[in-house]
Amino acid sequence: MGVDRWFLIISTVLAAIAGVRGLLVLSHGRKSPWTVYWMIGVLLCQIGYLMVRGEMRGACPLRSIAEISVFLAWSLTVFYLLVGPVYQISLLGVFTAPVVVIFQGFALLPGKMDSTPERVLNTTIWGETHAAVSVLAYGALALAAVAGVMFLVLDRQLKEHHLKGGLFRFLPPVRELLVSLERLLWLGMFLLTIGLVAGILMPHESEGAWKHVLIATGVWISYILLMVVKRVRGITGRRFALGAVALFVLSLGVFAFV
Amino acid sequence: MELVCLGLNHKTAPVEVRERFAVGNTKLGEASQDLLKMAGASEGVVVSTCNRTEFYLAAESAPVAMQRLEQSLAEKVHGHEEPFYRHEKAEAARHLCKVVSGLDSMLLGETEIFGQVKQAYHAAHAAGTTGPILNKLFQKVFSVGKKVRTQTSIQEGSTSIGNVAVELAEKIFGHLKDSEVMVLGAGEISRLTAQALVSRGAKSIIVANRTHDRAVELAAEMNGRAVRFDDWLGVLKDVDVVISSTGAPHTIIHRAEVESVRRARKYRPLFLIDIAVPRDIDHSVGEIEEVYLYDIDALDQMAGEAKSRRLQQIIECEKIIEAELWKLL
Fold first, then answer.
1. Do the interacting molecules here have an ipTM over 0.95?
2. I need a surface site. Which of A47, A176, A200, A232 has the fewest CB within 10 A?
3. Can B5 be counted among the known catalytic residues?
């Protein structure tokens, strides 16, 4: 088994520990101060994986669905560690860790990751920019979806007066979650716009490549619509959060055409 | 050297007695110096809050110091039942730990007492009335108090309706400095609840009452503004929190009215607190997505649950105190 896979396995195990331990501590009415450190460990192993794969490829490791999944998980972890302090950091980590486990667990499925990846000979600046920036954008959009889930949990607890337990106590306030959700969406959209423009400008050798750009454009338009409706007309927090979660899940379809 | 504590509090003395012993914050150092003279002790600290006054002494003989102090204070309790409690040696240290941890407070687990005892100690220290015994004791007691508060849930949850409302408002809006509050009806509970929100930084208060003069009076009290009762719906689009307690025999806020301002509010969260009996707000208003509706029963239940959670924590707190005292003594 290659070093890249070991890095990925360790990273996934650390993310699982962060999530499970965070939830266990939360169920005892406390907040784990260690989640952020587990997640730093996750990030370091992800970087290790991406460096090894980048070396093997001789290019940005975004050539297979497994690599994209890991890059996405890395991007999500980076944004969590960057914006975490805005929220109550360890709790966002508790919500983020399972998503990281899902993405990386998918990459670890048998047959998903080539142990001797093909070396990339022809790279273009537009192609590399498109891949890297788009996946980075998806990291921000994924974290927005995580914030959306946190909002939906808190909203339900407040509506139904179920206000006991560590989860309620440590979730950030409704308004802060919505503000953070909106900011993450704008950040994701900014990056996605750059990725999309680069995607249009890069050379397209197959029909699948155009389909990929077309779907990415569809995703971009959907997010813009959600943001404009929120800004201009207004939308309830629940619908805004549901929109962010649903769009993120649907937008993963883009990778089917990689 | 022996440790002595003589004190009175809300459990042992009525307010008319407690007020005779109350010492202002600026006089605490001076009071500690007087204490040394009265009791003939080598070290002394006077702790005084609205609910208690306590004298901590380090003296060669605890019974002698106690007797001299009681004789000096006898005049102040003349005509009333014996209001004092007395603790010596380890029991005095245990009592101080409980006081600092909020276990002896009227509102179990309250946090203010920690700062008040600290202030009393610093005043005595500055006045030169503390020495090795009381310095060691108070330093240890502060670390015990911190431990109790961080390792147990003794100060968690709100135990009054006003504080529960504030806690919920903060869970919805975070810092209240950007939140506007409308008070419908100028009753006592709505006044207290609004005051609790203002004390936590609510941006502005708008009061509407059937008797407009009363609304003006209450608004002035809270640096807010009054509006005519019939105009409350016009204000609803701007506010984040509504406290309703009108005393009307029927509901006054209905779903259709709240629905009519949703667009203008851009579907922002709205926190409705209905503390009226019979209720002022139709329960179907709570079905609107962005509305969080709480009536007096829900708030009261939350306050009750917090109280019982705190009561359950007493044993845990006492375990920590005992373990720490064992290290000290």
1. no
2. A232
3. no
